Amino acid sequence: MTSIKSLRWLMRKKSGLSDGGKSSFKMKQLPFLAVLCTIMLFIVYRTTKYQYHQEEVYPSTSGKLKGLPRGIIHDNSDLELRPLWSRSNSRSKAVYSNSNLLAVPVGIKQKQNVDAMVQKFLRENFTIILFHYDGNVDGWWNLDWSSKAIHIVARNQTKWWFAKRFLHPDIVSIYDYIFLWDEDLGVEHFSPSRYVEIIKREGLEISQPALDPNSTEIHHKITIRARTKKFHRRVYERRGSTRCSDLSEGPPCTGFVEGMAPVFSRSAWYCTWHLIQNDLVHGWGVDMKLGYCAQGDRTKKVGVVDSEYVFHQGIQTLGGSGHRMTKVSKPQRTTMKQGGVGIDVRTEIRRQSTWEFEIFKERWNEAIAADKNWVDPFKSDQRRIRKRRDTQRLPKNNI
C-alpha cells in the first residue's frame, strides 16, 4: 500500500511539473502575441487609411472619371510657369521652390507702388499673380519681372471675384501661404520672409500685417500697429460703439483681420474659398466670419503682425476706368455718363456693397437654420462671456 501511495504521489508531482512547464511556456508566449497583435492592428490601420485616401482621391460616385485609370488622375495644379523647352539632361531636375503666393488686383495708375511691392516678394521666391481690373496689361511689360508673373484680365472686377474664380484650393494647394492683398499698400517696412517666419512660429492660420498709424485709411483699431509688440491677437477699446475687453471673444476685438491685406494658410484658404460667395463680389461681411476658417480657436489662430507693417493709402480704384468719365468737384467722386444721365459711380458701388452685405448676413442665418447638424464652435464662448458679465454685475453682498 505504501508503494502504491508513493507511486501516486510521484505521478501527481510529475503532472504538476508538466503543468508548470506549460504555464511557463504560455507566459513566454504573451509578449510575442502582443507584438503580433500590434503588427496586425497597424496593418489594418494602414489598409483602412489607404482605402479612405483612395476613396477621397477617386470618389466611387464620380462616374465622370470611370473612363480613366486611377493612376493617371492628377487632381490638383499650381500657378508655376513651365518652360516650353529645356535641355534633355535638365528635364528631370527642374525644381520649383516657390512655396508662397502673392495675388493682387492692379490698375496701371498704381504701377509704381505695385512694382515696389512685387520686387520685395519676388526676392523671397513668391509666385506672383496680378488681376488686371482695368484691362491694361501692355503697360506692365517694361518691368523686368513682368514676364515672371501670371496676368489675368477682367475689366472692373473685384479682388474677391478674381479669387473665387482663379484661386481654387486645388490650384493653390502647393503654397503654404496665400497673400491676397490690395494694390495700395506701402511695403517700405515689410519683409515677406520675416513675416512668414512669425506666423509659422505663432501658429497663425489667418493674419495680416499691422497698419502704420499714419495710414490714410484705418477702419478697425485692431489693425493699428502696436509699436512695442511683434504681433497681437486682440485689442482693447473702451470708447465708441465697439467696446473691447478681456471678455470680448469675437471680431472686431479678436479673431479678426480686415480684407485689404489678409494672409491665409493652405487649410484656412481651403475653408475661406468656400465661404466666399460667387455673386457677392465686394466681399463685405466675409472678414467678420473668417474666424470660422481659422482651423481652431480664432482668438489664437488669427492675429496681426506688428513688427512687419504696411502703410494703407486708401485709394479708391474700382469704377474709375473703362468708361467715359467726368470729374466733379468733390474728391474721390467720379460720374459716368450713360445716355446723358450722370451716375455717381463711387456712390453706386457703395450702395451695391451695402446691399451685398445684407444678403450675405441673410444667407449666413439661413444656412445655420437649414443645417441642423451644424454646431457653432464659438457659441459656448458667448454663453461663458454672458455668464461672467452677469456675475460681475451682481452686488458684492450677493456674491
UniProtKB/TrEMBL annotation:
<dbReference type="InterPro" id="IPR007877">
    <property type="entry name" value="DUF707"/>
</dbReference>
<dbReference type="Pfam" id="PF05212">
    <property type="entry name" value="DUF707"/>
</dbReference>
<protein>
    <recommendedName>
        <fullName>Lysine ketoglutarate reductase trans-splicing-like protein</fullName>
    </recommendedName>
</protein>
